[in-house]
Amino acid sequence: MKEIDEFLRENKPAVQDDPTFLMETRRRMKEVDGIKAEVDRQRSRGRVALIVTLVAGLALGVLVTALAFLYPVDASSVGEGLWEGFRAFLDTWKQYLIYPVAAIAVTLSLVLTLGGKKAAQL
Amino acid sequence: MTQERFIDLVRVEQEPLRRFLLALCNGNAALADDIAQDALVRAYVASGSFLGLSKFSTWLFRIAYNCYIDNCRKARLDEAPVEAALAVPSDDSSDGSFRYQQLYLALEKLPEKEKASIALFYFEDRSIKEISTILGIPSGTVKYHLSMGRTHLKQYIQL
After folding, report:
1. How far is B86 from chain A (nearest CA, A)?
2. Which of A5, A19, A67, B66 is the most buried (most CB within 10 A)?
3. Would the pTM count as exceeding 0.80?
4. What is the CATH number of the domain that holds B140?
5. What is the pLDDT of residues B103-155, one digit of tens each?
């Protein structure tokens, strides 16, 4: 065993001096920095977009609430009007109602069948 | 960690790191350098998470070893032919070149953990504890791999 110990210690693999190695490392690190900067930019843009959306939503909510208080409407009459309108719509177009129902049924069956096949493949 | 600080640390560690990977890659210097570059990029990306709980070199070697393992999985390095070892460039005498060929051919036959333990212990003079941290295995297992590695090498190398 001592011979093997000596052999290994005396025959360390020799690394050839390569001045381009560190240059290549620097180049790759610059690329990484570029990617990092781009990711940070995207993140900050996303953050700004989120804040703008939140502020806009809040402002819109405040505006709608203010309008609701300023111009009150009898909600029950609006509701009845809507329901009547819906019933009139159904009465007029009821002979065509079967088509959208059939289309939904076909789409659902296709989606479920394809989904089942994919799950089976996995 | 700034780029300059990182480069300063790498400047010190690059030779041992490349030597370690060269041993793992059975003398294939191009592949070893590719893996070393990969490891350095990974280390740079993760440098923010280096807490200094272990030495920088230990941390870097661990990343390099993981890169090597990933590379083995991708390229099935285990089954690669031994041309790299047979074409070892050497400035030494032909006797020295023959010894390197013998060494790489023998290392190639070792299982990964044994090869890594041998390389770290004999070529990099790392302690058992450091090897255990780098390879992510208990110290007792490192000792076992070293012992088995020595036994196997004795069979493969004609002294």
Report:
1. 14
2. B66
3. no
4. 1.20.140.160
5. 888 898 999 999 999 999 999 999 999 999 999 999 999 999 999 999 999 88
Q: Tell me how far the alpha carbon of residue A29 is from its chain's centroid.
A: 30
Taking any CB pair shorter than 8 Å as contact, residues of chain B touching chain A are 3, 6-7, 10-11, 14-15, 18-19, 22-23, 27, 29, 33, 36-37, 40-41, 44-45, 89-92, 99-100, 103-104, 118, 122-123, 150, 153-154, 157, 159
- Nearest by CB to A13, from B10, B41, B123: name it: B123
Q: What is the pLDDT of residues A72-118, one digit of tens each?
A: 877 776 667 788 888 888 888 888 888 999 999 999 999 988 876 65
Alpha-carbon Rg for chain A, nearest whole angstrom, is: 35
> Which residue range forms the structural domain that includes residue B87?
3-156
Contacts of A53 (CB under 8 A, 6+ apart): none
Number of domains in chain B: 1
